[in-house]
Design goal:
heterodimer, A: 269 residues, mainly beta, Porin, twelve-stranded antiparallel β-barrel, 15 strands, B: 109 residues, alpha+beta, Alpha-Beta Plaits, 2 domains
Amino acid sequence: MSRFKVFALICLFILPAVEIAGQGISFDAGITPAEGRIMLRSQYRHISASATSGSITTRMVPIVVAYGLKPGVTLMARNMYFHRHFSASDVTVKGINDPYLLAKFRLYRKNTRNWVVGVAPHVAVNVPIGATGVGSSTWNPDLGVNVSFRPRFFSVDFSARYRIQDITAASAVDPPDNFAADLAASHIIALNASGESALAPVVEFNYFREVFTGDGQAAPDQLLMVSPGGTFIFSDIAFEMLFQLPLYQGSDPVVKQRYRLIAGLKYMF
Amino acid sequence: MKRSWRNILLAAVLMTPLALWAQKQEVKQAAERDTLTYTVYGMDCPGCEGGLEKQINKIPAVLSSEASWVDQRLWVVVKPDSVLKREDVAFRIKKANFTLAETPDEKKE
């Protein structure tokens, strides 16, 4: 495979997959919101990575709308503006990504005086609308499960998902599937007696791994990040920030991740 | 004659805030008379409160509601001359994905 094809493959499939997988503070909890609840969320994501020939800087602005259709069913739509710059070739790729649609279902939920447990699987897919610049132009469904355990003022959230890239085999090259898992632990501290405002420091571990379904492929990319951050909540508004640092990136990654910064705003009504 | 009109005007100016204050107190007392308190499990952040209040306020007999995730409490102000059924509250709490505590602890405050 020529260097250009390898580079094109990285740009089209591997980098977006890695970047979207390290979802950080935005991954879905195992708890479905109230019926009729609407959530708007936007973030700014700054991703710094390096290749042998230079640095790669990516800026993403995802916008998410979620709606509690039923107490046990949440619908979510996400799209994002994507901007990437390669320093070596001074090339910039930018545009609107494919829309991503998700449905989350409450499988189990138990509320007690001292703890809450929730398990919610999800099905999702990106819709290839032929968006310019960064859309994959393929159907990439994913299946996942989200588990939350919340003992009063603490919370532990776990999420795992498997994404099938190009399920219809529409593209000339067969991109690898991927698996991602996130684990987050946080402590929510009420800042006043009424609890209207609160602070929730969090630490997350975000893991991503490529899964090759074809044969004769290279070693899969892997990425494990540790992510400290926090959320400030005032009534129905939340400000969130997360800093992601790679702990492990496989033996010889094509693109080496440096750090990621996420700053976001969430509004519920 | 002129002086009496001035006295009436002065009395009105002085009495208006007093009347408004009295009216406000009456409304407050009426609200307190018709406030029910429930224990609700499952709220774990300030954002949960709004979701629950939105559901509770859909009950026709409810004038307003306020939830507290810290205290695990829900306060519901019932409309005058209305009856709020516990099963209606339980149904709406369930719609918000929370749980009404088993022990009936509704009390008027």
